[in-house]
From TrEMBL:
GO biological process, one term: maltodextrin transmembrane transport
Taxonomic source organism: Marinactinospora thermotolerans DSM 45154
Organism placement in taxonomy: Bacteria, Bacillati, Actinomycetota, Actinomycetes, Streptosporangiales
Gene Ontology MF terms: maltose binding
GO terms for cellular component: ATP-binding cassette (ABC) transporter complex, substrate-binding subunit-containing
Similarity comment: family membership: Belongs to the bacterial solute-binding protein 1 family.
Keyword Chaperone among UniProt keywords: no
Name this protein carries in UniProt: Carbohydrate ABC transporter substrate-binding protein, CUT1 family
InterPro entries per record: SBP (IPR006059)
Keyword annotations of the record: Signal, Transport
Leader peptide range in chain numbering: 1-22
Keyword Chaperone: no
Domain of life: Bacteria
Length: 429
């Protein structure tokens, strides 16, 4: 079974643009009308028709079950979401009742008072018990739930089976072996990148940090403190810096690359390996390397282990100012429930967030197994604070890797500077 093209992973395919928190009273509406127009915002896609068909089916089902209710769905551009949500939070009369949003944007939106606390609604919903715990956590701030995890994107290791076979190279079982194999492949195939993964590919290099026991930051109470300069984090950064070298992925080519360019080199036949997502499968299947590749979970530091991956994806939530809260929650549950998550997977390739639906997908689509195995092994997330938008927009982590790759700073110097910049953002400076 060929997976459909998965489009628009807002916070999985690349670093997000800043979504600075809006100013809002944060007061939930006390109205709860049971008729009228339910307004829904979803993200537009490059190829939107498959998504629209599934959503239209959900709308038809919902309207049939709710007399006097019309569901108005608007598809908004991802690139302008910050401005659209900021305006919506400040003017509830122009806001949707239900909205799709990137999971790394959530903390800032909650700080702005934009989304409703739906903890009790989810506790009364039987299906919610089957959400992957790691993914459910990406909808929570300070222990309260503000959304339903709608889909997730996982990254794993793509590699050229023909090249590994031709040069008698074993499939790597640890991160160090990934780097060693990449170095050997580039030596034997100097026209290729050993491992295509760039300095600006944050969600490509963070698994190296997490696998070594490091982290972006630690949290105690309401206080976040940078941890990218810890000994464990530096060990992961040090190993990834070996990727950004002449004998694996030359800095002049790879230092500025983000996720899309990193994967595109593999798709175009210019790399022996890459770290790519389930959302890249279709492009690889349609490429010249379609018959000569395989995917395995990105290994950790020990044989048999899997490096923690970033749990990127999109959620569905209810706006705090909605005057149709009950209807909004019911529509969110319908579109974000098991039946329609499976339909969205079949239409778009979006990996579901329910563990039982994931098992069904893995059984029917073997190509998804490495990504689901990665998810099941345990994922990690960015710091749950509105300050992450600032850190992200300032490209703190990519700048750190690029300094090291360019020889402008040692690992110790670059991580120390990154930690200082992160702590400034955490403290609001």
């Amino acid at each position: 079974m060929r997976i459909p093209r998965a489009l628009g992973l807002v916070c999985a395919t690349a670093l997000l643009a800043s979504c600075a928190p809006a100013q809002s009273t944060g007061n939930d509406s006390t109205a709860d009308e049971m008729t009228g127009t339910l307004r829904v915002w979803l993200f537009s896609e490059v190829n939107q028709e498959p998504k629209e068909k599934v959503v239209d089916e959900a709308v038809e089902e919902f309207e049939a079950a709710h007399e006097g209710v019309t569901v108005d769905v608007q598809y908004i551009p991802v690139d302008t979401r910050a401005e659209r949500f900021r305006a919506a939070f400040n003017d509830p009369s122009s806001a949707p009742d239900v909205a799709e949003f990137g999971n790394t944007d959530l903390a800032g939106y909650v700080e702005a008072g934009g989304f409703a606390d739906i903890t009790e609604d989810l506790s009364a919903w039987d299906e919610a018990a089957d959400f992957s715990p790691e993914l459910a956590a990406t909808t929570e701030v300070d222990g309260a739930s503000y959304g339903v995890p709608w889909y997730v994107g996982m990254r794993a290791l793509y590699y050229r089976t023909d090249l590994f076979s031709e040069h008698d190279i074993e499939v790597p079982e640890t991160l160090e072996e990934v780097v060693e194999a990449a170095r050997e492949l580039r030596e034997k195939e100097p026209d290729l990148l050993g491992l295509s993964s760039g300095g600006a590919y944050t969600y490509g290099f963070l698994p190296f940090v997490w696998a070594h026991g490091g982290d972006i930051a630690t949290v105690e109470g309401d206080t976040h403190t940078a941890a990218i300069d810890s000994a464990q984090s530096r060990a992961g950064v040090e190993l990834y810096s070996e990727v950004l070298s002449e004998d694996v992925c030359p800095p002049q080519t790879c230092s500025e690359m983000g996720g899309n360019d990193s994967v595109q080199n593999f798709v175009a036949g210019r790399a022996a390996m890459t770290i790519g997502g389930n959302f890249n499968l279709n492009a690889v299947e349609e490429s010249e390397v379609a018959d000569d590749y395989a995917v395995i979970p990105l290994p950790g530091t020990e044989p048999g282990s899997i490096a923690p991956a970033f749990a990127g994806g999109n959620n569905l939530g209810v706006l705090a100012g909605t005057e149709r809260r009950t209807l909004a929650v019911e529509f969110m549950k319908l579109l974000g429930g098991k039946d329609y998550q499976l339909k969205m997977y079949e239409a778009m390739g979006n990996l579901p967030t329910f563990t039982d639906v994931q098992a069904e997908v893995a059984q029917s689509s073997p190509e998804m197994e490495p990504f689901i195995a990665t998810l099941e092994a345990g994922t990690r997330f960015v710091p749950v604070t509105g300050a992450w938008s600032t850190i992200d927009a300032q490209t703190v982590l990519p700048s750190m890797m690029q300094q090291i790759a360019g020889g402008d700073a040692t690992v110790e110097e670059a991580t120390a500077e990154a930690a200082t910049r992160m702590n400034d953002a955490f403290s609001g400076q």
